[in-house]
Amino acid sequence: MRTNSFISAFSKVASGTFLSRILGLIREQVFAHLFGASMAADAFFAAYRIPNLLRDLFAEGALSSAFVPVFKDELNKGGKEQAFKLAQVTFSVLGLVVTGVCVVGALLSPYIVKLIAPGFSDIAGKSELTAQLTALMFPFLLLVALAALIMSILNSLDKFGIPALAPAMFNIGVISAAVIICPYMENPIFGIAIGVLLGGLGQMAVQIPSLWKAGFRFTFKPDFRNAGLKRIGRLMTPMVGGLAAGRVNIFVNTLLASFMAAGSVSYLTYAYRIMHLPLGIIAVGLGTVALPKASAQAAENNIDGLRETFYRAIHLCFFLTFPVITFFIVAGDIIVALLFEHGKFTALDTYNTYRALVWFSIGLVGFAGVRVTAPIYYALKDAVRPMKYSIISIFVNLAANLLVFVPSLNFAGLALATAIGGIVNFGLLLFNLPRVLSEIRLLRVAMMFFRSCMGSVISGLLVFLLLRTEWIMALGDGLWGRIEKIGFLGLIAVASYLLVSYALNNIPKFRESRGSVETEPGEDSDV
């Protein structure tokens, strides 16, 4: 592995994901300006969520996590020719299966909406609109599933740049539809649904030249008895169980929010979008790079390299995640107002979205930690433990929702319960990791956690005090005032966090030699 390969790959993925998330925020700004937290917005978000429930199964979730270790193994044993034969079979079978799912899903969309958002029936036309949007957007599942498989192949071949940029095409498709198509639609929300399909098509198409350049040629080979496909299926089965359990969270949240005041689904969605910007850059970036690398090291039985890959990934995860959590909690209301408080999005919408953002933010370290830790299990062909831990976290989330937080916090309680579920899932994955990789020392991980947490708390406290100074308050609540506040406070937060992290010896090391991570000064790698 060449010098700085992990950091170089992560930088490419993070940069591409950053662009995609920025475009995603622009997309949400355009959407908020056009639809606010209206009935149409609730209907779209619920409808889009339905094919997305299956996206984690057929796209970036179970299929990709199961495909990459097997593809890497085939690549290691038989080279590109053997690995590409597996990819051809997987493409063919995936296309057939997902096409069938899309057809059935579109036909059954009225019944699915009644199941997932029964409260919409109390408002005339809301369920019907949601069902129509669901049927229209179901083919997006096929497009994004094929795009994710192409991304997995390219990542396994150590090609990260174009795949990282591909999701940006989705946002470009939706934004373009909002500007070009929506004005000519009788009901503009259908223009956004068309944009979803265009975005999915772009996400797939932009990667095809890179796949062709890598030497892959598609041949329709739906061989359900293929040995490699069976291995993917065996590894994927428990992942499906874990992801299905995870989707229960979304199902329950949508169901409960559908009975709450109008706008509740939208508040949760806008807050999640903001939280997902750093989550995508940090967690998705690290997870995307870690899985192929860990899978290759596991195939080569390079246990030392696998251990150091995890240490490097989890350290970067903590180091980058904690300051974001504190900044969202302390200054999240300004961020929400800057991004969304335009057009039909009111000050009350800002306040309610901020409430949800605060509670979602608490779980950010859990959501990110799962993306970093689970790939180690998958690389070692163990998908059963992650499934069990995911199911346990679901029961925790359900209990927190129904018994504690929803009665006291309303829709914001859904965000807090989701955050707690994510933390529980990560905690179980982390504390049981030595069972599959005995060389992992949790004390070393705990020190990384503690140092990052301390640095972010000190930085957050400084931002909290600055927010209450007359100079900051005098900037006002206009567009430029908010930009100046976020810019200044962001610079102070970053500078103070880096200084404290340097003092605590918590700056991640970026030099890599022979596939291992440099040990921190004064730290034994076996601690």
Shape: globular
Number of β-strand runs = 2
Number of domains: 2
**Mean of residue pLDDT?**
84
Q: What is the radius of gyration computed over CA atoms, rounded to a whole number of angstroms?
A: 23 Å
In what range is the share of β-strand residues? Answer: under 5%
| Class from helix and strand fractions | mainly alpha
Stretches where pLDDT is under 50 for at least 5 consecutive residues are 511-527
N- and C-termini, Cα separation: 25 Å
Order of helices and strands: HHHHHHHHHHHHHHHHHHHEE
The number of distinct helices, counting runs of at least 4 residues, comes to: 19
What kind of oligomer do you see?
Answer: single chain
Q: Helix content range of the residues, please?
A: over 70%
Layout of helices and strands:
Elements: H1 5-35, H2 39-58, H3 62-107, H4 109-116, H5 126-137, H6 140-156, H7 161-180, H8 189-205, H9 208-213, H10 227-258, H11 264-299, H12 303-340, H13 347-362, H14 364-379, H15 384-409, H16 411-431, H17 442-467, H18 470-473, H19 479-503, E1 512-513, E2 516-517
Antiparallel strand pairs: 1-2
Note down, in words, how this protein is organized.
The protein is mainly alpha-helical. The chain has two domains: 1-259, no CATH class; 262-439, no CATH class. It contains 19 helices and two strands. The protein has helices spanning 5-35, 39-58, 62-107, 109-116, 126-137, 140-156, 161-180, 189-205, 208-213, 227-258, 264-299, 303-340, 347-362, 364-379, 384-409, 411-431, 442-467, 470-473, 479-503, and strands at residues 512-513, 516-517. It has a two-stranded antiparallel sheet. Strand 1 and strand 2 form a beta hairpin. It is globular, with a radius of gyration of 23 Å. Residues 511-527 have low confidence and may be disordered.
